[in-house]
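For reference, the entry.
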Amino acid sequence: MHLPVSRAAKVIILLLPLVIFLGIGEIYLRYKHVSIYKSRAQTLTRAEDPNLIYVFIPNKNGTNSRGYLDYEHQYEKPPGTFRIVIIGDSVAQGQGLKVEESFGRVLERTLNDLSAQNKFEVIVLARSGYSTSQELVLLEKEAFLYDPNLIIWSYVLNDPAHPVYHRAGYGHHFYKPNVYLAHLISNKLFLLAEIIKGRNCDKEYHEFLHCVYWYQVQASLNKIGTISKNRKTPVIFLIHPVFQKGKTYREYTLTALHKRLGELSSKAGLIPLDILDAFRIYDPEEIKLRHEGGYDRWHPNAKGHEIIGNYLVKSLKDSRFINFAEITTPSL
């Protein structure tokens, strides 16, 4: 004898395989996320500020007490000290180099060697993988704790990337969604919308990124400019070129993008400087970082950082920010 099956029971029977499938998928994604998180958690940890997503563990693997690969710096500025804060990602951090080889340290050393009147201190607030949205948090919440006289915004051409969805850094390892399947779907929809918005854009990665997110770049630079004006602290917008495989800087294809960024930053009230001007005379292979695991498009080696540091000194020599009366410019 067969008992009648209610409509609700039929629905449950039909949906049960789907529920089981989704449950298994959610468990798998959570397990995968935890395993990747543990592999990165030796040097990184989730940030208290959700907008930062992750930070370096303080006092571990060369980091200082505030979780930066830099020397220790006190918030209180010593008398007679001119302070420069650098904000950026792995390039400003000096990825793959010793701390003293980064362009921030080169800048500080050179200024102090050349100056008979001023004491210079350069503070590097940079973390590998950070995007512009995360760097803005550093500007708003940390940079001015050091009472800087000047800020250098280190801009790399992948900075407009979404810190989680684009997987440009470590954000996707440390971002913890409430529902992992929903987050996966959201990520796919984000990338689909990006393809649609960028259907008429140049397909070169950096051009594409700026084409699709140009208004966000503009909004970010305007925000930096507003903070600079309100705080009465000048901000240098330092544009870094990428290393294009098989091309010299005479064949560099992103010059127009550099120009647009320079013009946009100037309109926002920032002071644009372009490292491309300093790199042009060099073979890119001579100044790029070499490592196993593929071609590095973004990171200069120690020589490249030395060139950047000296370029900054040369650019600051005739500026209104520092009294360089007794400073001579280093040769590049």
In short: Strands lie at 44-46, 54-56, 81-88, 119-126, 150-156, 235-240, 271-274. Residues 7-40 form the longest helix (34 residues). Residues 326-332 have pLDDT under 50 and may be disordered.
